[in-house]
Specification:
49% helix; two-stranded antiparallel ribbon; globular; 349 residues; eight-stranded parallel beta sheet; 14 helices; binds zinc ion; alpha/beta
Length: 349
């Protein structure tokens, strides 16, 4: 009899709870998915660019915890089911504290903190570092800087207080606030000419700089004499140089199929990684040409960013695949180099 009363009492309580449930559970239920959406919103708030920015930068490892978190809502729905749940009305509040799921975030790899950052850093764009042959055409001459001129530029940068960083450092700063030297500069070299190994590498080391070299890996595979070899790559990497991909064979990547892009983008990445035993995170668009599809494939291939041939020094965590550079012209004097640098660094908006 007492038992029956008790059960009846409990039943009444449950009914009341359920009646209020619409109200009581709502905010709590809503709270769970909100966590997810607030996560996305906090990643810069600038909609598609900011959230897409976050994706490639997070490691594969960093992604998995996120997906482990999402299932969180399920405990909440386990509670909502009315029938057997007699007393558990208070329990739910504690259940969502499944926060520990987040803790397993892997230690070494950076996870973007969602804060939008902008920074002016000159990314210099070099090609040949050698004296062009006598019969070289205007384009070739413009792309070639003599080792002497190159060294003069390095000396200037050093005296002016610049410290070279890698693109990896720059992106870590933009996404996690990683601290950079006071006047950072990135020196990039497109195409992977053998003179980069013969002259640039030595001069960079001599003056305490590092460089980022973008390879067209078909040229290494074919052992073309005018391009650095895989052995050169391994040696330079061991000497502190950074490597990125510049496509498989320097083709125009615009308006291409996904399969073709994967071949041009993922292939060289794996080829370089195989040699340097380290992830390749940056890409240089051949001839600066790209479209949305190219960026989408780069993201899915876990690249962190890409350099363009657009002039500028302002970089943003929201646009990691549109890093701007300053083109170095072979015919320019040191004075012109300095003027250009200062113009893009301080005067240009
Ligand atoms: Zn190129």
């Amino acid at each position: 009899m007492i038992k029956a009363k008790l059960t009846w009492g409990i039943f009444v309580v449950v009914v009341i709870i359920l009646a209020c449930g619409g109200l009581a559970l709502r905010p709590w239920n809503a709270g769970v998915p909100l966590d997810d959406s607030s996560l996305t919103a906090s990643h810069g708030g600038a909609g598609e660019i900011a959230s897409s920015n976050v994706e490639p930068l997070s490691e594969e490892k960093a992604v998995s915890p996120t997906s482990t978190v999402t299932p969180e809502p399920s405990p909440s729905s386990t509670v909502t089911p009315l029938p057997p749940t007699i007393t558990p009305s208070p329990t739910p509040t504690s259940t969502p504290t499944t926060t520990p799921t987040v803790t397993p975030t892997p230690e070494p790899q950076p996870t973007p903190d969602g804060i939008a950052r902008r920074l002016r850093v000159p990314i210099l764009m070099y090609h040949y570092v050698s004296v062009p042959p006598a019969d070289a055409d205007a384009i070739r001459r413009d792309l070639s800087i003599s080792p002497q001129k190159f060294e003069a530029q390095l000396k200037y940068l050093k005296e002016a207080g610049f410290t070279s960083i890698t693109l990896h450092d720059l992106m870590l700063h933009l996404t996690t606030g990683y601290s950079l030297p006071e006047k950072p500069v990135v020196l990039t070299f497109d195409d992977g000419y053998v003179d980069n190994y013969e002259f640039a590498y030595e001069l960079l080391r001599k003056h305490g700089f590092t460089g980022t070299f973008f390879l067209v890996t078909a040229f290494q595979d074919e052992s073309r004499p005018e391009y650095m070899s895989w052995d050169n790559v391994v040696e330079m990497h061991a000497g502190g140089m950074e490597f990125g991909a510049h496509s498989y064979n320097h083709a125009d990547l615009q308006k291409q199929s996904v399969d073709y892009l994967v071949w041009q983008i993922l292939g060289p990445r794996e080829a370089i990684e195989e040699r340097i035993k380290e992830p390749v995170r940056f890409f240089s668009y051949p001839s600066g040409a790209y479209d949305d599809q190219v960026v989408a494939v780069l993201r899915s291939a876990h690249y962190w960013g890409a350099v363009t041939i657009r002039q500028g020094t302002l970089h943003s965590s929201e646009r990691p695949f549109e890093l701007r550079r300053i083109r170095i012209h072979g015919g320019d004097s040191l004075g012109k180099f300095v003027d250009d640098l200062n113009y893009w660094l301080y005067e240009k908006q």
